[in-house]
Amino acid sequence: MIDLGVVLDASGSVRDDWSVLLAFVASLTESVNPGPGGSHIGVVKFGDDAEKIFDFNEFDESTYAEADVLQKITDIRRPGSGERTFINRGLKLANRQLFREEFGMRPEVKQVSFRMH
């Protein structure tokens, strides 16, 4: 059981491989067994700007289902071709809006950050 924060590169350089990138994130998500008593997932994407897609509080504890998490991941929009790569913005946003208790981080479990590029 972990709190997994995915920091996802959404710059123009990955645009052509977007579906492959999201498939990998979905596979990674399945492997950590998300659910109320299992792992929790949060996603931030970055390009020119950073955006929190969802945090560890996104899903109701009683109904937290892997299928809901996977759907939310596959719904992430493909980046524009002109987006540049500002990873610092993605990492900063993850630290500010994922890995804090107010956003659902559980201090009693291991926190893992994974950058996808």
Model description:
- The protein is of the alpha/beta class and 117 residues long.
- The radius of gyration is 13 Å and the shape is globular.
- It starts with a strand and ends with a strand.
- It has a 4-stranded mixed beta sheet.
- Helix content is 29%, strand content 23%.
- It is built from 3 helices and 4 strands.
- Strand 1, helix 1 and strand 2 form a beta-alpha-beta unit.
The share of residues in helices is: 25-40%
User: Tell me, what's the shape?
Assistant: globular
Tell me the major beta sheet: 4 strands, mixed
Alpha-carbon distance between the termini? Answer: 24 Å
State the secondary-structure class: alpha/beta
- Rg value: 13 Å
Arithmetic mean of pLDDT: 90
Order of helices and strands: EHEEHHE
Report low-confidence residues grouped into runs of 5 or more: none
Number of strands: 4
Instruction: Write out the strand line-up for the largest beta sheet, numbering strands in chain order.
Output: 3-2-1-4
Beta strand %: 15-25%
Quick structural summary:
It contains three helices and four strands. The protein has helices spanning 18-31, 66-74, 87-97; strands spanning 2-9, 40-46, 50-54, 110-116.
How is the topology of this model organized?
Layout: E1 2-9, H1 18-31, E2 40-46, E3 50-54, H2 66-74, H3 87-97, E4 110-116
Parallel strand pairs: 1-2, 1-4
Antiparallel strand pairs: 2-3
Keywords:
29% helix; 4-stranded mixed sheet; 23% strand; alpha/beta; 117 residues
